[in-house]
Amino acid sequence: MVRETARQFAEKEIRPTVMKYDESQEFPYEIMEKLGNLGFLGVIFPETYGGAGLGYLEYITIIEEISKVDPSVGLSIAAHNSLCTNHIYTFGNEAQRKKFLPDLTTGRKIGAWALTEPTSGSDAGGMLTTATRDGNEYILNGSKNFITHGSVGDVTVVMANVDRLKEKKGISAFIVENDTPGFIVSKKENKLGMRCCDTSALAFDNCRVPIENLLGEEGSGFSQALAILDGGRISIASLALGIAQGALDASIRYSKERKQFGSPIAEFQAIQWKLSEMATQLEAARLLTYRAGHMKNSGKEIAMQSAMAKYFASEVAVMTTNEAVQIHGGYGFIKDFPVEKFYRDVKLVTIGEGTSEIQKLVIARNLFER
Fold first, then answer.
1. How many CB atoms lie within 10 A of CB 280?
2. In three state form, how does the secondary structure of 337-366 look?
3. Strands, DSSP E only, in the chain?
4. Do 50 and 105 contact (CB within 8 A), yes or no?
5. Domains of the chain, start order
């Protein structure tokens, strides 16, 4: 029922405006509001806080179905649920949960999560943004880069260093409301793909945050971020599944319709082999992702499983969309066919929330610790 609801919504509400939002890079506020009404912006959170009270398998299903139509919207659902909202739910105290979660889980407010900086991407521990204690406040100074929902968000979880001498152990996490003085949207990025999902650079200029907005203990921010990324990688794997499935479905349709040498190209062995490889690899990626989601639901350690799912699914999605464009030939290179957009959107899944190379390091580290 969850799958069918997501599928119908994607076809009715999202598909008619996919290219409009892609070309304008306008954030789809109306679509996000409707997603909030469906409970899709609070999928994995208890009803106590306004969430849908569902698990990770339903979450995977929703992101996959939405991303088959528009990966940009799928990415917004993923980032909103698994990063900002989940960070507050997982590491916030009860007062913080009650204050911020109901608006986030229902979509009344949009969430952002700020870890990456201009000089620290994969090396997140090398961040330069600082948080200086001043009485009952922290003063944030610095900048963040590639922040999903940075310019459209209402609430941002920001990682900042309270003690650089402690390196990673000096990093703390703060809830920052985006109308706080000193919170600055410095640049909205003009991107290759995922264009209606806002990505922006942020700056903090003596941005004062009340002490009650500190998440957990001082110095626990980096370990919190790693835990949040473990779950976030399931989100990106789900996003990759949706892109790959959308590209495969489009390729099957096209190969039945397109005729060359008097026959549909679906009858050619070269095309059949491409489609068979795409479908098999996609199914393997789906099983890895479902396993990670099931383990997350069961409360098990998922660092290696989520990294495997994210790494494999994202690489499969890139392969699948590349083959989809090849099957479409010249038509795959124009915007009248959906594979052109899938091809642009897909590359982000091998980069965001940890590159493929970082996933391999996470997997190897877990192998060595066995």
1. 11
2. CCHHHHHHHHHHHHCCCCCHHHHHHHHHHH
3. 111-114, 130-134, 137-148, 155-161, 171-177, 183-188, 199-210, 214-215, 259-260, 263-264
4. yes
5. 2-105 (1.10.540.10), 111-219 (2.40.110.10), 223-368 (1.20.140.10)
Q: Which of 367, 345, 359 is nearest to 71 (CA)?
A: 345
**Where do we find the tokens 């495997």?**
308
**Which residue type, as a one-letter code, is found at position 38?**
L
Evaluated on CA atoms 170, 361, 313, 343, the torsion sign reads positive
Residue-level pLDDT, tens digit, the chain, 370 residues: 999 999 999 999 999 999 999 999 999 999 999 999 999 999 999 999 999 999 999 999 999 999 999 999 999 999 999 999 999 999 999 999 999 999 999 999 999 999 999 998 888 788 999 999 999 999 999 999 999 999 999 999 999 999 988 989 999 999 999 999 999 999 999 999 999 999 999 999 999 999 999 999 999 999 999 999 999 999 999 999 999 999 999 999 999 999 999 999 999 999 999 999 999 999 999 999 999 999 999 999 999 999 999 999 999 999 999 999 999 999 999 999 999 999 999 999 999 999 999 999 999 999 998 7
Q: Which two tokens stand for residue 9?
A: 């919504």
Report the length, in residues, of the chain. Answer: 370
Could you say which of 33, 189, 353, 357 is catalytic?
353
Catalytic: 353? Answer: yes
- Distance separating alpha carbons of residues 8 and 12, to the nearest angstrom: 6
Structure tokens at 360: 């391999």
Q: Is the sign of the CA dihedral 329, 333, 336, 338 positive or negative?
A: positive
Whole-angstrom Cα distance, residue 172 to residue 96?
16
Token output for 137? 């406040």
Rounded distance between C-alpha atoms, residue 24 and residue 195, angstroms: 8
Q: Which two tokens stand for residue 1?
A: 């029922």
Q: How many CA atoms lie within 13 A of 128 on its CB side?
A: 11
Cβ contact 216:173 at 8 Å? yes
Residues 6+ apart with CB under 8 A from 323: 247, 251, 274, 277, 278
d(CA 174, CA 193): 30
